Fold:
Amino acid sequence: MTIVDNIPAGLGDVVSDDDWYRHLGDPDPAGSAAQRTLHDLLLRATRTQVWRLRNRLPGVGATDLEDLAQQAADDALLSVMRKLDTFEGRSRFSTWVYKFGVLHAGVAVRRQAWRHREVMLSDSLPMADHDHSPSAVAEGGDLVRAVRRALESALTPHQRTIMLALLVEQVPIDVLAERLGTTRNTLYKTVHDARQRLRRALIVSGHLDPQLDRRRP
Amino acid sequence: MTGRPERGGLDRAAVERMLVDTSPYLSCDDCFARIDEYAEHRAADPSHRDELMEVHLAGCEACAEEARTLIALLS
Structure:
């Protein structure tokens, strides 16, 4: 079974029975079988996520993608076993397990994609706007200029640095967290606060409608 | 090889990412705690709404990517 084959056959029968997980950690054959089922579920999730994100890793072949999925599944299994007592049954156990596999695989792909890339940190704004089409200039030029002013006047240097790295340079949040020795949570809160400040400044200056529709996932 | 990318530009797309309204606030950890339940609801009914999750996913590309994959796994 490789990442190209993708989904293990017959898993659906196992997934439909959510009681098997109660044997996890048992020092007997039922415990061993539960551990294998858990790993199969995680592998399904990590293979799916690695395959969906494979375009972030140009030139990486199927064997290396499979290794990445296997390693992520191994790491996710340890996370699941550590967090087992926090499962509250608000979703199926298999869905709860999948999210650990998806998380670990996503982090692994993003870190590998940025392994040899420098993360540029600066609180100074980029010199040039890249979108010079006539329509962009007409429709958005004024807003972009207002945002530039608000970035300098409304944000702290730290907020500006983090916002530029995540939203302009588009450094993945977990990659930036690792490089800065902080957490995804902390960086997201910094960007949340910066967005609030930026939006307030632009509403005051008349460049932003406070009822502007939110983007939906 | 060490890549030294050119700095990104402050274009319209970057501005839109900056102006996403992420209130009410939900942390990435809290999003992770709810994402399995959210994905099951969305897989069963694409019109299911959860404002807290939708706001967070609109402002956090990593969590949004995880939600899309989780929903795909269940669909």
Q: What stands out?
A: The CA atoms of residues 120 and 169 of chain A lie 8 Å apart. DSSP finds eight helices and no strands in chain A. Helices of chain A lie at 11-15, 29-52, 62-83, 93-113, 134-154, 157-168, 173-180, 184-204.
